[in-house]
């Protein structure tokens, strides 16, 4: 399968046309969820703004609360992945879909488990050398998209399927991510405001990669099955 990074990025921009207001709002909500909300909680646990501002080390209680928040944010993060996949597929996603994932406790726990297990695998590979850890993180990168299309898969099945389908495409995926570094540097000169637009662009490109490269393999398999029959 021949695929061009420029084609993926062009298709991503096409998917974002007319949706910039929605995705920038989502980026702002992500900023609140990942940075503002945890900071507020940490200030409260620390006993107030003055104590929080003057402390040299994070109190154990605040550290535990932060860890719990990070774990609880995992379904939200994956919901964002799925939002952009729906955007690429022209399924008219809305921000409420990102939070609706919490309405199914079983799914939320499964996604948290998948994220933790994936992180453990990458960490263990990283103990060998830094490069193997990067390679494996790329191999497992499609896990959450696969769970979106195949909720019947177990966590290990989804991780294994991601690893299998990324064979031959890991370098292309790496280059796709690398192609956004220049934009990221430019966003730093906007005091970070530019990331409100860059994050949707990057996220849509990753979802487009899945749709055109990974998910399309299922269509090819189905076509081959039909021809065999």
Provide tags for this entry:
229 residues; mainly alpha; 14 helices; 0% strand
Structure explained in plain terms:
The protein is mostly helical. 79% of the residues lie in helices and 0% in strands. The protein has helices at residues 5-16, 20-46, 49-54, 60-72, 74-88, 95-100, 105-128, 130-139, 143-149, 155-165, 170-178, 181-188, 195-214, 216-228. Helix 5 crosses helix 13 and helix 7 (105-128) runs antiparallel to helix 8 (130-139). The longest helix is centred in the first third of the chain and has 27 residues, at 20-46. It is globular. Mean pLDDT is 89; it is low at 223-229.
Global outline: globular
Beginning-to-end CA distance, first to last residue: 24 Å
Provide the residue-averaged pLDDT: 89
Quaternary state of this entry equals: single chain
List unreliable stretches of 5+ residues.
223-229
Number of helices: 14
Largest beta-sheet details: none
**Counted beta strands:** 0
Strand share of the residues? under 5%
Q: What fraction, in percent, of the residue positions are helical? A: over 70%
How many domain regions? 1
H/E element sequence: HHHHHHHHHHHHHH
Question: Topology of this structure?
Answer:
Blueprint: H1 5-16, H2 20-46, H3 49-54, H4 60-72, H5 74-88, H6 95-100, H7 105-128, H8 130-139, H9 143-149, H10 155-165, H11 170-178, H12 181-188, H13 195-214, H14 216-228
Helix pairs in contact: 1-13, 2-4, 2-13, 5-13, 7-8, 9-10
């Amino acid at each position: 399968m021949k695929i061009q990074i420029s084609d993926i990025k062009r298709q991503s921009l096409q998917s974002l046309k007319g949706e910039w207001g929605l995705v920038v709002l989502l980026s702002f909500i992500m900023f609140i969820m990942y940075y503002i909300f945890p900071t507020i909680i940490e200030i409260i646990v620390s006993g107030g703004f003055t104590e929080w501002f003057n402390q040299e080390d994070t109190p154990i209680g605040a550290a535990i609360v932060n860890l719990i928040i990070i774990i609880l944010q995992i379904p939200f993060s994956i919901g964002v992945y799925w939002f952009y996949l729906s955007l690429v597929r022209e399924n008219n996603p809305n921000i409420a879909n990102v939070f609706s994932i919490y309405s199914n406790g079983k799914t939320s726990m499964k996604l948290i488990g998948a994220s933790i297990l994936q992180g453990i695998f990458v960490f263990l590979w990283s103990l060998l050398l830094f490069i193997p850890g990067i390679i494996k993180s790329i191999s497992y990168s499609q896990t959450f998209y696969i769970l979106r299309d195949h909720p019947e898969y177990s966590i290990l099945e989804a991780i294994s399927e991601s690893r299998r389908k990324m064979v031959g495409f890991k370098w292309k995926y790496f280059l796709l991510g690398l192609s956004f570094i220049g934009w990221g540097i430019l966003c730093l000169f906007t005091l970070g405001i530019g990331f409100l637009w860059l994050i949707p662009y990057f996220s849509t490109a990753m979802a487009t990669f899945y749709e055109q490269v990974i998910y399309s393999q299922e269509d090819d398999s189905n076509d081959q099955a039909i021809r065999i029959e």
